[in-house]
Amino acid sequence: MKRREFIASASSMMLPLTVSGMGIKTLSQTSSMVRSVLKTNAAQTDRVLVIIYLNGGNDGLNTVIPLDQYSKYYSLRSNIAIPESSVLKLNGNLETGFHPAMTGMQNLYNEGKLAIAHSVSYPNPNQSHVRSTDIWMTGVNSDVYSSSGWAGRYLESRFANYPMNYPNPQMPDPLAIQIGYMDTTTLKGNQQTTNISFEDPSKFYQMMGALGTVNSDDMPCCDAGDLISFIKQQQISSIGYSSRIKAAADAGRNLATYPTTTSVNDLSEQLKIVARLIHGGLKSKLYFVEMGGFDTHATQIGSTPTEGVHANLLKKLSEGISAFQKDLNLQGIEDKVIGMTFSDFGRRANSNISKGTDHGIAAPMFIFGTGIKRQLVGTNPDLVNDMIPLTMNPSNKNQDIKMQIDFRRIYSDMLNDWFGTNKSTTESLLFGAHRTTSLFSNTIESLGSGAWPDRNLWSSNRMPGPGDYVKINSGHIVSLGENITVRNIHVEGNGELKLLPNVKVNTTG
Amino acid sequence: MPNLDTYTPLLTAHTAAHLLRRATFGPTKQEIDSFIGLTATEAVAKLMSNVALTVNPSPPVDYYDTQPTAGQPFLNEPYNLPRQGNFNAFIRYWWVGLMCEQNGNPSVLEKLAAFWQNHFVVPQGVIGDYKKSFQFLKLLRTGCLKSFRTLIIEMTKNPGMLKFQNGDLNQKGWPNENYARELQELFVVGENDFAGNQNYTEDDVKAAAKVLTGWQVTTNSNGDSTAVFTPARHDTSDKTFSSKYNNKTIAGRSDASAGDAELAELIDMLLAHPHTGRFICRKLYRWYVNPNVTTDIEDNVIGPLASFFTSPANNFNIQPVLEKLLTSNIFYDNRNIGAIIKSPAEFAIGMVRLFGQEVPNHTTDYVAFRKFAEFVYWNMSGLQLDFLSQPLVFGSIPYYQSGYSKNWINGNTLGIRGAQIDKFVHPYIAIRPGSLIGIDFLAWVRALQPNFSDVAGTPSISCEYAFEQFSKYLFAIPLTQSQKDFLIDTIMMKNLPRATWTNELTNYRKNPTNINSSNAVMWRGQLVMRYMMRMAEYHIF
């Protein structure tokens, strides 16, 4: 054996191990780490997911700013760059900051209630709004088409045979709610839409109350028959659910102050309704809200880089989310709600001469709520090595930000860990297995073999830190060349942690 | 191909109504009647020749009576910034008025212009300038039946489009790819072919952006805009495209005509793409025939139609393609009748046209016209269709998103449609004193009843006859007998004997000024009409 010490366990059993004279604790079934690894998959019946769609393709690089590479950031987009001194700082995260309009989300981050998933996209990205949004909403590979949405398929699988025999005592409410006029593909099931859409719960009840009953026989053939039965189903569900929605809206209370709205159907207005309905006891599992205006090809800043179109959008987003989270907190229901944002795609790393940004590839997603177990998935994009193409060529100065996290990994975590869906069901709903990002776990898993600092080695796409448990999966060999502090390390059967000489692993439990 | 062969049977009420519902925003009853017995070819020829009657209407005027310029045209006046919002709205009202026009000579014009308006979006909400908006609309209305090649070249240089898609910012060394992408993805080639293969590459977007560098908009002191080409802003390098375009190179040019010359070469390259014809023809098919394009339809309708569209003999002319489609066997196939959910336009405009709602003259009776147009326009807008102000460059979601026309329908929009039907069936909005928007059931019944005042000599019309007239041409798919019985007995008569109707009508004829007598008759009409218009069957066409 070489001088190099290593840990290799011969079976998947937990073994008491000693490395460099320092104990790695035996893990019993009751330890928090084991519990988190062996998380039960019992359906989390009262949990809610709120999806916020940022229509148009948000400029990620001016939203989450890589302070650790400020000069490179500035040179990519000097005509729209946020001044370094204006960037909002994040507690315990010197490398990254927020756009100055995002004070609300800065506070949420500092309170541990907001996570950033960096550079989210999908392989072979598409830069068409229509197609890329469709890929995000349906949850497919970019060369595959689906007419159903990822969340709609999930709800259909959880509530078998919807809409037949619904509502029923187990599920008296709509499976999902969309605040708006045009149904999202995200919530389309294979059979029907799974959501009820409205703008205002009370007005909705009045409109539906006046609709009257609908007779349903004598269906014509072909597409006409299909359309008629679709409309009838929408009428029946909407009438049937409108009184439940109104009752929840009447019973619920908004306890936080929301920002003053500047237009009809502002994001904060939509989130305010969502908070009221959840608080009022509506059992819907998914809420979908939307804000538009993110397609900032030109003049995304005003007379200074810290104000203008994009600043106003981020201010609305940030104020809306922080008021919503505060509301849930005051209502005492914070622990049952998780929110996430998504957009068509990110925007180009470099700006254009029109003080705007063209369509790009990867961008950050935000996940918020008390249920998250980590605040960072992935790292700031490396503005040299994560660029596509790697170097600017003189005739084409355009560079895009490469993907770190496939968005379906976040969806998969939502289904597995937040909703407690069976893993094989999640795989079938998302057309394949997607590795966890450990968003809902304090354990980071290895995804392969390599050197410890390599982000690609880890489920969270970043090196484990002092707050993390680490699990090295079977067959993976991880070599460690520097001292580290983590809470604990668990090595699966046939996994291996190779320590270079004199390297210390500090564990904090 | 039999699908595209000419439909030979003479038009019946059923097929004449189908043609008019699809070729316009909804027919009047007289128009349907006047098309019965024509061949499809004759009928479509009429729809085409009638275009000339309305293609150059009098321009919009100031529709606000409180303004000093009330009733006067405003487009040739110097730009009026304080009134920008009003004038943008007036242009929308003016166009909606043309869509509702009832001159007895229906044409394909406005429905086709609306197709292109959804294809090439230039939203007032983004560009602001009402003169550019009207310029865009004029291009659509005058160019919509002619050469697609000319239309796309004109559209590329349209000042509103140059502003909206940032073409005016696109310059040498600093390309703005916005328009170059949409030109390929949305306007000419389409993102994918039917099998889902990409039709162009990201590098093709970048190359096209370079071809398009140098165009800007100038605006004179009157506020009228034109496109100008500045050679100094133009990228003079050679632009090379991918194998999707046969590795075509467009040679860089530097003189004053470089912009037009390279643009022409670019458009010819896009038009030569093997998918272009199918992309445009498929979109027309979805708009006019059925959004559901199966592989069979793709192979046996879209393909042959595209071959015809792109053939040297046709050379990308639009009118012959539309004529072929609207006279084809596949258009009249029973499977395609009722195969689309009405858009807000077909719903809101169709309603005022079917019931013969008067459209006031927009210059001589402009206040009444404005009130009428406001009713129709804001009904559509409330249902998420804002002509000339659609928020997204890809047009309305129901024309491209999976589910297509189903996307118009959800609990929210059904509720709003219901409320709009109520306003029309229970009229209360006045366009001028004494003239309400909506259905005047008493006038309708008085017209249906022969010798209305001769109560003793002429029997009152039956409940069944009144119902047949009320429901005439209301549905794309004929009602079944059981549906009719349900509507008459349960809805209209509230389970009273049908003879009750005759008695009530006779009573009204004897006492035409008695409010209780007239209300009884009106109420039955309103009951059944409100119900029928809320039926799912009413919302397909």
Overview of the molecule:
The complex is a heterodimer of chains A (509) and B (541). Chain A is built from eleven helices and 25 strands. Chain A is an alpha/beta fold and 509 residues long. Chain A folds into two domains: 5-39 and 441-507, no CATH class; 51-401, Alkaline Phosphatase, subunit A. With 541 residues, chain B is mainly α. The longest helix of chain B has 20 residues, at 515-534. Chain B has a domain at 441-539. In chain B, the strands form three sheets. In chain B, strands 1-2 form a two-stranded antiparallel ribbon. The chains are: A alpha/beta (509), B mainly alpha (541). At the A-B interface, helix 4, strand 10, helix 6 and helix 7 of A face helix 11, helix 12, helix 20 and helix 23 of B.
Mean pLDDT of chain B: 95
What is the percent of helical residues of chain A? Answer: 25-40%
Gross morphology of chain A is: globular
Number of strands of chain B: 6
Major sheet of chain B: size, sense and barrel closure? 2 strands, antiparallel
Task: Tell me the fraction of residues in β-strands of chain A, as a range.
Answer: 15-25%
Classify the oligomer. heterodimer
Structural class designation of chain B: mainly alpha
Features:
heterodimer, A: 509 residues, alpha/beta, Alkaline Phosphatase, subunit A, 2 domains, nine-stranded mixed beta sheet, 25 strands, B: 541 residues, mainly alpha, two-stranded antiparallel ribbon, globular
Question: What is the fold's blueprint, element by element?
Answer:
The complex is a heterodimer of chains A (509) and B (541).
Chain A: E1 5-8, E2 17-19, E3 22-24, H1 32-37, E4 48-54, E5 64-66, H2 70-76, E6 88-90, E7 93-98, H3 103-110, E8 114-121, H4 129-138, H5 150-158, E9 176-179, E10 195-198, H6 201-209, H7 222-251, H8 267-279, E11 286-291, H9 309-331, E12 337-343, E13 363-368, E14 376-377, E15 387-388, E16 400-401, E17 405-406, H10 407-418, H11 423-429, E18 443-445, E19 450-451, E20 469-472, E21 477-480, E22 484-486, E23 488-491, E24 496-499, E25 505-507
Parallel strand pairs in A: 4-11, 4-12, 8-14, 8-17, 9-10, 9-11, 18-20, 19-21, 20-23, 21-24, 22-25
Antiparallel strand pairs in A: 1-24, 2-3, 5-7, 6-7, 8-13, 12-13, 15-16
Helix pairs in contact in A: 3-9, 6-7, 7-8, 8-9
Chain B: H1 13-23, H2 29-35, H3 40-49, H4 51-54, H5 84-100, H6 109-119, H7 124-127, H8 130-143, H9 148-156, H10 159-164, H11 178-188, H12 202-211, E1 215-219, E2 225-229, E3 239-240, E4 249-250, H13 258-272, H14 276-288, H15 295-310, H16 319-326, H17 329-332, H18 344-354, H19 366-382, H20 411-425, E5 430-432, E6 435-436, H21 441-448, H22 463-471, H23 481-492, H24 499-510, H25 515-534
Antiparallel strand pairs in B: 1-2, 3-4, 5-6
Helix pairs in contact in B: 1-2, 5-8, 5-19, 6-8, 8-9, 11-12, 14-15, 14-16, 18-19, 20-25, 23-25, 24-25
